[in-house]
Design brief:
35% of the residues lie in helices and 26% in strands. By secondary structure, the protein is of the alpha/beta class.
């Protein structure tokens, strides 16, 4: 049985520089996978390849065994993939409920969209924000609202790029609870720089370094690996 999501020998070059250099990963149904690495490791570039924001220079991206390499983001989303980028893309002038409804009406009727929106807000514990104007929300609240937009269509797979960027410690703790809860029904891949946040949510972790997979293992073993500590501290790592 094939993995839900696979990257097979993915390369992404910008000029003569390989930001991603032959990455192979496989994410199984039901996983909560962490993808970490120091700044410049290639995490966000790989995320953009997985989500259709970039077409890899070489290699393939597979979803349920089907080649989706080069499909645009909207087409990837329609295949049951929820995508959350680093910068929230929300409707600041609308209420939270109205913004969710607009996003959901693209694929669902009015009644279905209303039900999905309400269910998503309840699941993330932010139903009390439904009538609040998005542009007046705090940063952590905005991040949760965008996560509600990602979750509302009930995707099989959710891909999150640094979901706690700019959050306070309490907001980060709340986000970890939400992501763990979502993993009961969704396969999730979280791209992060913060190792402690990944420790609190992930089971398996893939570490990138200089565009390649440095190590992949159970979270406690990865975070105690001296090679991982070294790349985060900027030390040379033996090939």
């Amino acid at each position: 049985m094939s993995a839900l999501l696979e990257a097979r020998d993915v390369v992404m070059r910008f000029g003569g520089v390989a930001a991603v250099d032959g990455v192979r990963i496989a994410v199984e149904q039901g996983e909560l996978r962490g993808l970490i690495g120091p700044n410049g490791a290639g995490k966000s570039t790989l995320f953009k390849c997985l989500t259709g924001q970039l077409r890899p220079t070489a290699g393939r991206i597979l979803l349920r065994g089907k080649d989706i390499t080069g499909l645009p983001s909207f087409a990837v989303a329609r295949l049951g993939v929820g995508i959350k980028t680093q910068v929230p893309s929300l409707f600041d002038g609308l209420s939270v409920q109205e913004g969710l409804m607009i996003a959901l009406r693209r694929q669902h009727g009015e009644r279905a969209a209303r039900g999905l929106a309400g269910a998503a807000l309840e699941r993330l514990g932010i139903a009390d924000l439904a009538d609040r104007t998005v542009g007046l929300l705090a940063h952590g609240q905005r991040q949760l609202v965008e996560l509600a937009m990602v979750v509302a269509p009930e995707p099989d797979l959710i891909l999150l790029d640094e979901p706690t960027a700019g959050m306070s410690l309490e907001e980060t703790r709340r986000a970890a609870e939400v992501i763990r809860d979502l993993n009961r029904r969704h396969t999730i891949v979280v791209v992060e720089h913060d190792m402690q946040f990944i420790r609190s949510i992930a089971r398996t972790v893939t570490v990138l370094h200089q565009g390649r997979v440095l190590v992949e293992d159970e979270v406690s073993r990865v975070l105690s690996d001296p090679r991982v500590r070294d790349v985060y501290l900027g030390r040379q790592v033996a090939a």
